[in-house]
Amino acid sequence: MIRAYRDKGKAHQWDIYLASLFPLLTQSLIDWNFTTTNEGNTAQYHDIDGINLPAGKVLGGSSSLHHFYHVRGVSNDYESWANASQDESWNWDGLLPYFIKSETLEDPLINSTEYGQYHGSDGPTKLTRELNDATLRYLQAFEEIGKNIEEDINIGSSYGFSQPMFTISNSIRQSSAESYLSPIKEQSNFHVMKNTEVIKILFDDDNNAIGVEAVTSSGETIKLYANNEVIVSAGTFNTPKLLMLSGIGPKDTLESLDIDVISDLPVGQNLQDHMAVVVAHQMEETDAVAAAADPGKFPVPTFVGYSAVDSTQTYPDYISLNLICKNIPSIVAQLCSVVIPLKKEVCEEIITAATERELLFSVLTKSRPWSVGNVSINSTSYLAAPVIETCYLTDERDLEENAAYLEDFVQVAKSSVFQGVGATTVSVTLPSCANLTVGSTDYWKCYAQSMMIRFAQLGSVTLCVVAPTPWKTLEFATCTKSSRYLAFSSKSRSSVK
Ligand SMILES: Cc1cc2nc3c(=O)[nH]c(=O)nc-3n(C[C@H](O)[C@H](O)[C@H](O)COP(=O)(O)OP(=O)(O)OC[C@H]3O[C@@H](n4cnc5c(N)ncnc54)[C@H](O)[C@@H]3O)c2cc1C
């Protein structure tokens, strides 16, 4: 196994392990620090020219910097995989045994109920919950507006609002490295080369992959040959980059860079990356002083919601992650200025709303985006970052549906729980939406476009197939723009052709 690790610099072990420190990990030495190309369609209120696309550059990959939520998804998601692959083993029932096999749920409450049958007791990934009473009135509020409340949303068949499971055990992050590699690290037939980056896949005369070329931490280029097979799992952005550098990818791209074409395939096309929209609710005044957080726990109480606008629907349309910040503006500041990061003036308004108040900080993501982007390369150097066009919201349906989800979600402000404490939906100043009526569908479309962020929690996919057909026959959309709501005044932004 070969894994790119940190760039030069000191490894700070605890930032990876401790849940409370997750906001420090994006844009750090263990992040590949990719950004999108500037597509001029979204993210006008981001503090950088583009959008950060964090991806773990460390053992365990992104699971070593991710946000701990253990959400399996619902059976409908897997049904669509089974339909697409015409292989029933990809549906929920086919995958459930593997979910169970992969985990040890350390939650006596769930394990002692009917839900226990959906969870494992001796798998490598240890899971816990951090039940917190602060979530209860929020769950009640969402129930009041018609949402289901679930003890366990990881059983496939139900959806609603729930306190989540975390990939945390004994105060330690359960990354895939911690779960799968640590237990076998002394095994004699297991070898890991850290700080080593694969730069090319090697092929024999019949185009069989036989090994890789890699650059070690000392800068030496080496060739490694496989006894059986080469498995490439370098993540959504680096896998297509590596395939293209190795001669597998769109012919036009490869030829433009004088790369010998081994196989002309649409590698890097059909990127499906999730975006989310930030929305905050200001709750009651409080002079509570936040207790010093346990560094091994998630920094604030949280709950997740799987929702559908049509309450009779049997599967959700959108997911919300909700953080309860009780007079703790420093966490809000970290989220909006480091993890996202939004422009200073937008962030300041949200931080102010969180000062001496309880604030519900939510991010809403559409489970199945229509917009598709692509990953490509513009250099033969392995040091060059892949060119990533996420194309968020370029399909008009995404804009309409995100607006509908926002309208649906903020109904919670009408619940007696919210009304009882004089709660309001935080209306940040967005000059580009200034001439729209707050709360109208057009306003929410504009808001979604303005307050969008990347949502890495659901992961992303792109085509990395090496099989010759049927992918060749598919047509892939390019990044065409949807209608604009934003006034592009402060910066001129280039457009994607
Ligand atoms: C900020 C963030 C928060 C997230 N939060 C959650 C969450 O709360 N819950 C959840 O379930 N999921 C979450 N995710 C998503 C989840 O982490 C990813 O879906 C998952 O890690 C993807 O696994 P992967 O193996 O496909 O790729 P990765 O995890 O990206 O692993 C790829 C590995 O390959 C290495 N690599 C890349 N190129 C090379 C090369 N050329 N040579 C050698 N090694 C290379 C990388 O360094 C990395 O170690 C989050 C992701 C991010 C980025």
From TrEMBL:
Cofactor: FAD
Superkingdom: Eukaryota
Residue positions binding FAD: 58, 198
Gene3D superfamilies membership: FAD/NAD(P)-binding domain (3.50.50.60), Glucose Oxidase, domain 3 (3.30.560.10)
GO molecular-function term, one example from the UniProt record: flavin adenine dinucleotide binding
Keyword check for Flavoprotein: yes
PROSITE patterns xref list: GMC_OXRED_2 (PS00624)
Protein keywords: FAD, Flavoprotein
Every Glucose-methanol-choline oxidoreductase N-terminal domain range: 235-249
Family affiliation: Belongs to the GMC oxidoreductase family.
Protein name: Glucose-methanol-choline oxidoreductase N-terminal domain-containing protein
Organism per entry: Leptidea sinapis
Lineage: Eukaryota, Metazoa, Ecdysozoa, Arthropoda, Hexapoda
